[in-house]
Amino acid sequence: MKLDPTLLQIIACPVCHSRLEPDDAASELACTGCVLAYPVRDDIPVLLVDQARTR
């Protein structure tokens, strides 16, 4: 997964607005505040709540 470090500093969870941390093994962004993880497809974060999974 190749995400711009600047992007990782500014994006936030659409539900609780906490920081997102990359999980390269699962190809997703895990929220540090709630229990959601958002998929990353073709190096593009999909920050749609209906696409998120509970971790």
Would you mind describing this structure in some detail?
Helices cover 11% and strands 33% of the residues. It has 55 residues and is mostly beta strands. It has one domain (5-54): N-terminal domain of TfIIb (Single Sheet). Strands 1, 2, 3, 4 and 5 form a five-stranded antiparallel sheet that branches. The longest helix has 6 residues, at 5-10. Belongs to the UPF0434 family. This is UPF0434 protein E1269_01225. Pfam families: Trm112p (PF03966).
Write a brief structural summary.
The protein is mainly β. The protein has one helix spanning about 5-10, and strands at about 20-25, 30, 35-40, 45, 55.
Give the CA-based shape: globular
The first-level CATH class is given as Mainly Beta
At the fold tier of CATH, the topology name is N-terminal domain of TfIIb
How many domains would you count in the coordinates?
1
Mean pLDDT: 95
Return residue spans where pLDDT drops below 50 for at least 5 consecutive residues: none
CATH architecture: Single Sheet
| Total DSSP E strands | 5
Number of helices: 1
Order of helices and strands: HEEEEE
- What Rg is obtained from the alpha carbons, in whole angstroms? 10 Å
Can you summarize the main beta sheet? 5 strands, antiparallel
State the separation between the terminal residues, measured CA to CA: 19 Å
Assess the beta-strand content as a share of residues: 25-35%
Helix content: 10-25%
| Helix-strand makeup class | mainly beta
Pfam families: Trm112p
Family: Belongs to the UPF0434 family.
Organism: Jiangella asiatica
GO cellular component, one term: cytosol
